[in-house]
Design a protein that fits this description.
Distance between the termini: 23 Å
Order of helices and strands: HHHHHHHEEHEEE
Oligomer: single chain
Structural class: alpha+beta
CATH architecture of the largest domain: Orthogonal Bundle
CATH topology of the largest domain: 434 Repressor (Amino-terminal Domain)
CATH class of the largest domain: Mainly Alpha
Number of strands: 5
Strand content: 5-15%
Length: about 200
Amino acid sequence: MDQVKIGRFIAACRKKANLTQMQLAEKLGITDRAISKWETGRSLPDSSIMLELCSIFGITVNDLLSGEVVAMDHYNKTLENNLLEMIKQKEQADKQLLRLEIFIGVTVSIILYVMILVASFAQMEDWLRIVLIVTGVIAFALGIIYAIRIEQTAGYYECKECGHRYIPSFNSVLWAMHVNRTRYMRCPQCGKKSWQKKVLHKDQM
């Protein structure tokens, strides 16, 4: 999708509706800075407000993602292309998030290890040793929780029994036994527990 083209289209629709950036932002419950980012092609509207934005402009989501009003004779093909592009962008974003998860996990582990080493071998007051270790443990715990949140939301888990792919709850991922990104969880589709691996695609390829 051409973000610059979409941005120009949003700006044109806003002006056609006789709205300022501030007025549109107020209708959507966001800041005018977000509107400015859309119109300059630096970002796209979040999916949670696309329908409301399109309703204000009197256009379809397909029009919005195309950056123009789509003629009916090309509507289905354009819609298919837009959906495929959105899926591709989500998969790329999920790959980046999963790389970030690894970085966070390694970083907080190193921080904890270094703080324990310093507290164990450096000369200092006992209370300072305790502070260092507690700080390292807190940083590690927060980092791991954030990394697990990333793993939960990026991509999908595939049930080994029925092949269903889904996004589990945070608690399911947090408390599940795991080997790397493969976790032992109950499938919401078939209700059976199995070792479920992380995949990026919603549907089987």
